[in-house]
Structure formats: C-alpha cells, structure tokens
Amino acid sequence: MYTEQEKKFMAFWEQNREKRKKIHFQLMIGLPAGVLLVFAIFISMISGWHKKALMEFNSNKSVILILVIAAVLIVGFIALFTARHKWDLNEQHYRELLSKKQKAK
Predict the structure, then answer these.
(1) Region class of 50: left (phi > 0), else alpha (psi between -120 and 50), else beta
(2) How far is the C-alpha of 82 from the C-alpha of 87, rounded, in Å?
C-alpha cells in the first residue's frame, strides 16, 4: 500500500507537524533564504552599478534607516513565506497519503 519512503514521511510528519507549524520554527527554517536575498540587494547597492541610486544613497543618510527597516521586513516575509509554503506542501502530501489509506479500506 505505502512505499517505504511514504511510511517514513508519515511517521515523521505525524511527530513534527505541530512543531513545524509554530512561527518561531518557521522563521528559523526560512531565515537563510531571506538573508541571502537581502545580502544580494545590499551588494548590488554598494557596488554602485546604478549611479543615480548611489547618489541618492550618499546624499541622504536617513536612507540607511529606511533600508535597514526594509531589509528586516524582507527577511521576515521571505522567511515566513518559504517556511509556510514548505509546511503546506508537506501537509498536503500527508493528507493525500491519508486519503489513499482511507480509499484502500
């Protein structure tokens, strides 16, 4: 009925689904993707490939605060979005396997 991989997934997801649904766990899982994106944005800004953006950045130092706030928001959004999306995919797969079990009865 189930393959060995499906059995392992079912056992894993039954134990960890509530733990992985919590926000602080989702932030830890998705944090690297968000940080990587923000790091790439800052490298792009510092490199100076867009001259007008670099002039604006250097002319007004309050822009730094706005960029830091935007970076934190981007990291938070990307972290939560990627982790919740991954959780939803796992939950959908789990429910499909459960319905497969119900149909087999």
Answers:
(1) beta
(2) 9
Q: Strands, E, within 1-105: which ranges? A: none
Helix then strand then coil, % of the chain, to nearest 5: 90, 0, 10
Angle (CA) 85-14-34 rounded to 5° is 25
Region class of 22: left (phi > 0), else alpha (psi between -120 and 50), else beta: beta
pLDDT for the residue numbered 74: 94
Model pTM score: 0.73
Tens-digit pLDDT profile for residues 14-49: 999 988 888 888 888 888 988 999 999 888 888 877
